[in-house]
Specification:
The chain is α+β, with helices and mostly antiparallel strands and 144 residues long. The chain is 29% helix and 31% strand. The protein contains 3 helices and 6 strands. Strands 1-2-3-4-6-5 form a 6-stranded antiparallel β-sheet, with helices on one face.
Length: 144
């Protein structure tokens, strides 16, 4: 399911795009493509767009590793993505329902986390009893 918020619904009138796909590696290409399209709107360079695509792919792979195998509601377990487009940044917040309350994302010293930190300006993760999420922010460099 794809939803573009019908009005400027983010903080300070930011554009928000919501995208939910089945929690399967087969659908990560959809999220990478959406990331590239939104980053292009902000006039990121091709290298910056590719960095973001890789970061989103890596974040989603980390989340799929802890995702539930069976849906809590509906037909499929979903990987949800919230893209927030501001005049100077793109923030991507991805979430999945947890397979069990004991699931944890890799620690900050893991290779996957180092990749995320190198490719995005800000990276954070959250895990509660029901879902795990990773937030990535890439800022548009000021161009003179």
């Amino acid at each position: 399911m794809t939803q573009v918020a019908p009005k400027r619904s983010g903080a300070d009138g930011d554009d928000v795009v919501l995208l939910a796909v089945p929690a399967s590696p087969a659908y990560l290409g959809v999220l990478r493509t959406a990331t590239a399209g939104l980053a292009a709107r902000l006039q990121f360079t091709l290298d910056e767009i590719e960095d973001l695509r890789i970061a989103v792919d890596e974040a989603c792979a980390m989340l799929l590793a802890v995702a539930a195998d069976t849906p809590q509601l509906g037909d499929t377990v979903e990987l949800s993505c919230r893209f927030t487009v501001t005049p100077d940044a793109l923030t991507v917040y991805t979430t999945v329902p947890l397979g069990s309350p004991d699931e944890r994302l890799p620690g900050g010293e893991s290779f996957a986390w180092q990749v995320l930190s190198a490719l995005a300006d800000e990276v954070s993760a959250s895990v509660d009893a029901h879902q795990a999420g990773i937030r990535l922010t890439k800022r548009r460099p000021s161009r003179s």
